[in-house]
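User:
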Amino acid sequence: MYINAISHYLPSTLVHNDYYTQLKGLTDEWIFQRSGIRRRTRAADDENTNTMAIEAIIPLVGSLPYDVTDVDLIVGATYTPYDTVGTLAHTVQGHFKIHSATAVTVTSACSSFINAVEIVEGYFATGKAKRALVIASEHNYMYTNEDCDQSAHLWGDGAGCAFISSEQCSVDDIEIIDVHTTGLGHIGKGVSGVHLRPSNGGLTMPYGRDIFVNACKFMAVEAKDIVEKNHYMLGDVNYLVPHQANSRIMDHVAKVLGVEQSRVISNIEDTGNTGCASTLICLSQNWRKFTKDDLILVTVFGGGYSSGAMLLKK
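Assistant: Predicted structure:
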């Protein structure tokens, strides 16, 4: 599989840490030391999960190696849907008039983007699709429980998209060497670690420590396994793109893998945790810095729990 084009959208509104100083008495330094976040992106009143996804796609229309209407598979990824019936994927299909595509939306917390890519792999392998559009979009603020001391200050909003083909379309494509996900609902606090339940107070993280420990462990395991499975060494990795949940988790994973901080891609200081869209946004923001033969390693962990990794080569 090959990524033909990639883009992202971040709302223009930034909420700085001093907002939570006024709201909860949490200082800028307290938040930054524990999360790596100085500010987070926040969708405007007239924006939502679907509109942000559409904004992420618009810059690529007309510059793809094929017409956007030639896409035959659309996979949305989100745990903060605007509509649970008219899904993210179907909204994108309707907006861009992609008539002949299969459309499906997946939710597996912050690993959902990697899950979406693995779904694409399955459709490609069975010959049911050749050109896919993956969209990851999160409107965390709309679901945020601002009374939650553990997590209210963590969340940011944003979206990213990637056009993926079964065959190489251009010398500028980046190859998806491998993608893998794991369900971990039986580990630790599982579905209780962080949850978002109807009429239950919004995004809540009662077991942050359990999430931290398991994210550190399984993001490193997924990363190491996918590199070794494909006959590389961790020293071959040029860039590590971890899920942007917490700078301390990212630092720990990089240390375990032996990846220098200069090779770790992060945007959490300026965006907060943008959920499953975070690694896709990071990839888009840094797309032009990747050069021929660069090996790019993406690793994620989601509440619920789930984990995954993707290995890319320029």
